[in-house]
Automatic annotation (TrEMBL):
Pfam families: Aldedh (PF00171). The active site is at E235, C269. The lineage of its organism: Eukaryota, Viridiplantae, Streptophyta, Embryophyta, Tracheophyta. It comes from Arachis hypogaea (Peanut). This is Aldehyde dehydrogenase. Residues 14-464 form the Aldehyde dehydrogenase domain.
Amino acid sequence: MRNIKDSNKMPQRIILMHRASYCKVREQVEKVRKAQKMWAKTSFKQRRQFLRILLKYIIKHQALICEISSRDTGKTMVDASLGEIMTTCEKIHWLLSEGEKWLKPEYRSSGRSMLHKSARVEFHPLGVIGAIVSWNYPFHNIFNPMLAALFSGNGIVIKISENASWSGCFYFRIIQSALAAIGAPEDLVEVITGFGETGEALVSSADKVIFVGSPGVGKMIMRGASETLIPVTLELGGKDAFIVCEDVDVDHVAQIAVRAVLQSSGQNCAGAERFYVHRSIYSSFVSKVTQIIKSVTAGPPLAGRYDMGALCMHEHSEKLEGLVHDAIDKGAEIVARGSFGPIGGDAVDQYYPPTVIVNVNHSMRLMQEEAFGPIMPIMKFSSDEEVVKLANDSRYGLGCAVFSGNQSHAREIASQIHCGFAAVNDFAATYMCQSLPFGGVKHSGFGRFGGAEGLRACCLVKAVVEDRWWPYIKTVIPKPIQYPVAENAFEFQESLVEALYGLSIWDRLKALVSVLKVLTEQNSTNSSKLK
């Protein structure tokens, strides 16, 4: 196995990014398309070799990958390890273990009328996947669609966020080096930078689009994709409910709750954004999370040992402040906030303190809009019916987490939440099970990535039927329905349908006799005509 070279040096922080024009994007898509035609002929063994080279590099250079992410997005090294490294390694491991199985032809039953046929589903690469990804996890958001696309035989063009282009371009070098190490076409993967018009050009020229972002832009992606009628997978964020029943271990669940809201400073697609706690343990739960939040210190992630890092964008703190002020104006109360380490005056807006808010309700924007920040709004509930109604009172439907001392009780509540995934007595565990699909409903989007569903979503799904015992048994059109059709053709069809699908054996036998009778009569008629 060849090593990846020249990808383990820290790039300079100041670098000129080129915005890809419409023509440039189409040109790059065509380059990838040519490379993909060669890559589609590779074996799964060759594709696994590519994955192993990547996995070896990632494990060896975890600190470098995390530091790049930290510098560009503000997350701590621990948050980067959890959200960038572990998720990506788990996806590679799943593809190595199970990927080929889900892309091999899948044989299906051929039914009663086609017993002499074999039926299967084949999975062929679509061509060029276009991925438009968000900034919150720049490493994983590039590798996640790239891994699925390449393993299924596609090429890919990835439009990285303008808010994380520096790190994205560095991570691209890792992919290029791994491709070179196995002698793969160098143009199989392209990473492009730019703004809205760059994304529009990619949508208009790719064979499928995967988009991670906001509902507003997701609708624009759909409109663009409708022009060429290409498939689209949309992951558009969430407002996930975190439900705590009365019979939990409060100390245990409180720690999970804080991680659920503070991971990557709350800039987490599957982060917990609405906390519903049973009124009988509400006070003790609030007390415990308040204690933890007050112990949290935010600061420059590479300048010291801080629990939480920065927000990726300066203007995001203004949005968070607006949501909090709206809640306070409507009766909410801040009961706890974390602290800051030494922060320069010009960087204050890049940080937002971990915050616990109580006395919230659904009239507040904080309980309706995706915050994407380190804010924990906690609301009481009294019954299962009430909390299910509250959890479903959202335009989003990405995921949920339900905690109870009785696992079947938690499972029952989770089953009633209208969302794409549920964690029972855990938070976001579904994403670390890469055998599972990931995606939502309602304004959280549709389509899935992850698991067999996500892998096959990168494929042309083709149904194939052929003779099971060729050339000994072939399809022959029965005489009554050969052109020109016989007078008793419909009588024949009626009997044939009942012979195949009648509910009782006796009904089917009687119908079979009728079928044979019609065929005998038809043969007699044909013989008479010949005489």
